[in-house]
Amino acid sequence: MSKKTQIFAALIIVLFSVILWFPQGVPAAGPKNVIFYIGDGMGATQRRIPEEVYGERLVMNTLPVLGMYTTHCAVNLVTDSAAAGTALATGHKTKNGYIAIDVDRKIAYESLAGAAKRMGKSDNSPVI
Known about the structure:
The chain has helices spanning about 5-20, 45-55, 80-90, 110-120. It is mostly helical.
């Protein structure tokens, strides 16, 4: 096989690998449903340990799209539940004791649930 043929074959294999690697079935307009799963104290390490112990992947680690973020306070090393809850619900950091408001108390943040309701999405969240 010539060098050009080998390079062409390698490029085809890489192209098909990339195509198969991308999540399938996610519509261009965005996902139909979003699962917002909050595992208290559950970081990447805590999700990986049972996979190592039992030799099977956790279903949550096989989903086509995964997002992670931090919930630390905007100004302190120790975070309270108000600041952590604001980070979870709004995606913004704030001070301890503040709920859904910026550190200067000038901007009120909209929660994910509020944004979904405003967009006409249904709320099928379980009450725990």
